[in-house]
């Protein structure tokens, strides 16, 4: 071993032994786990060499137990030559779930870097075939923070060996494969803080789903629009019980004066009297199926009605309003209502039917207040975190949101934009919403009392066994939730 290697190894070992590992729920751990995921997905798996160049230090030192020492230039050349030269037979790296540890580096109380250690599994990817697991290795990496960018400074890659096949009882990727669902995204909130962001599987049965995978989430659009509406109400720009006919009357119901009864409250609690969608009715026209305010009936049409009324009243479209009130303040940069120019199609979780057959991706180019939102686990997790912590609205309006506005059945109610389930242990109650489209199944749920919550995104149809496993074995009060289905 050369002196250079010896001192570098000694430095890393000393650093790890003298600095406490940070909590896996901490902001720094989540930030660096995300950085690790994005770096290797873009630089190694997708061969974005421009990204690689901008995220490795000028004095990079890379120590490999089989191919020796590499400086920045050698490392970059080897990545081009051995990792990125043949896209038809491509080496792929995946972090072994649960293996990552992070140790912060401080300079008189100010963080300037971090040491990561963990286990990498390496695969060969060929089009039309399953990834082939080729080897496993341990790694230790020093990251240095330069302004707002983390750059890789020192790397040890060692203990390379043939894969040891493991079949843990709760292997989510095996569960996905067995049920013809390519990807799963899970976000977990504990005590009001987004602590875990996990993405498993593939985008399309070939490409590994990255940390920032974009999912279509169907009706999980509605809670976003509901909170946008409540924020407008909180600002005095709208009233919860004001009639909407002054701003919008759908041409299909202009001769039925029951339109005068429609208010934001009735729409957010699904008491409009509308069907879910007019195209699902025999007439293909919007009609009242009962008097507004007399009972509950789930309706996407109601949310679209609300959107048009708000847009007409305020002279701004839904996208502008939600961007200002939610997406920008919460830094939800991967969330959008339609396939605009900012949509990164290379990160989209394509959708698959019950047999595991790919569904043709339908792109849409206008907002729908009830469906079609595109988002990531991290972004929607930020939204849930925000809403658990008061949603940025008055206490009185917040209480209206979680109040039992209408009874569905025993221990089952609807509030403003959310279904409410009561009867959990420890007097817990939950607000939840689901989303379902062909090849899409999503769930978001939060518990106001404990400030816990989670979301699950799936890009397939055959999901019952996946939900059962994830809920009953992994998530807060998930077993009780599963038994309430």
TrEMBL record:
InterPro entries: AmpC-like, Beta-lactam-related, Beta-lactam/transpept-like, DUF4440, NTF2-like_dom_sf. Residues 40-152 form the DUF4440 domain. It comes from the Bacteria. Pfam families: Beta-lactamase, DUF4440. Residues 171-463 form the Beta-lactamase-related domain. SUPFAM superfamilies: beta-lactamase/transpeptidase-like, NTF2-like. This is CubicO group peptidase (Beta-lactamase class C family). It comes from Tenacibaculum caenipelagi.
């Amino acid at each position: 071993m050369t002196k250079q290697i010896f001192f570098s190894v000694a430095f890393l070992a000393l650093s790890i032994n003298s600095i406490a590992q940070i909590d896996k729920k901490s902001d720094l751990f989540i930030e660096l786990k995300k950085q690790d995921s994005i770096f290797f997905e873009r630089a190694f798996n997708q061969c974005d060499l421009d990204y690689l160049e901008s995220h490795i230090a000028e004095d990079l030192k890379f120590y490999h137990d089989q191919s020796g020492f590499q400086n920045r230039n050698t490392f970059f050349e080897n990545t081009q030559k051995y990792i990125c030269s043949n896209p038809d037979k491509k080496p792929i790296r995946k972090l072994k779930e649960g293996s990552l540890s992070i140790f912060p580096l401080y300079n008189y109380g100010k963080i300037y870097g971090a040491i990561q250690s963990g286990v990498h599994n390496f695969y060969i990817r060929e089009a039309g075939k399953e990834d082939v697991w080729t080897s496993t290795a341990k790694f230790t990496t020093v990251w240095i923070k330069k302004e707002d960018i983390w750059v890789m400074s020192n790397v040890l890659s060692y203990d390379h060996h043939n894969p040891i096949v493991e079949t843990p009882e709760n292997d989510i990727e095996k569960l996905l494969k067995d049920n013809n669902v390519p990807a799963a995204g899970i976000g977990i909130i504990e005590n009001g803080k987004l602590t875990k962001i996990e993405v498993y599987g593939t985008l399309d049965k070939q490409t590994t789903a990255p940390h920032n995978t974009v999912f279509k989430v169907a009706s999980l659009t509605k809670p976003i629009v509901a909170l946008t509406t409540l924020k407008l109400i909180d600002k005095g720009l709208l009233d919860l019980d004001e009639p909407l006919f002054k701003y919008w009357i759908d041409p299909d119901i202009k001769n039925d004066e029951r339109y005068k009864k429609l208010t934001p409250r009735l729409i957010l609690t699904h008491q409009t009297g509308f069907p879910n969608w007019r195209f699902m009715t025999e007439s293909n026209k919007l009609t009242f199926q009962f008097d507004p305010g007399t009972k509950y009936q789930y309706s996407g049409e109601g949310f679209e009605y609300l959107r048009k009324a708000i847009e007409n009243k305020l002279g701004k479209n839904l996208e502008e309003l939600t961007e200002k009130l939610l997406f920008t303040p919460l830094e939800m940069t991967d969330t959008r209502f339609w396939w605009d120019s900012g949509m990164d199609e290379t990160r989209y979780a394509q959708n698959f039917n019950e047999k595991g057959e790919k569904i043709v991706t339908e792109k849409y180019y206008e907002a729908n207040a009830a469906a079609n939102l595109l988002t990531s686990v991290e972004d929607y997790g930020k939204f849930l975190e925000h809403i658990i912590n008061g949603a940025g609205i008055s206490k009185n309006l917040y209480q209206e949101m979680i109040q039992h506005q209408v009874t569905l059945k025993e221990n089952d109610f609807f509030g403003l934009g959310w279904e409410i389930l009561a009867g959990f242990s420890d007097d817990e109650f939950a607000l939840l919403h689901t989303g379902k489209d062909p090849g899409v199944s999503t769930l978001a749920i939060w518990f106001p009392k404990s400030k816990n919550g989670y979301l699950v995104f799936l890009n397939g149809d055959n999901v019952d066994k996946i939900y059962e496993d994830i809920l009953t074995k992994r998530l807060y009060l998930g077993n009780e939730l599963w038994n309430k289905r």
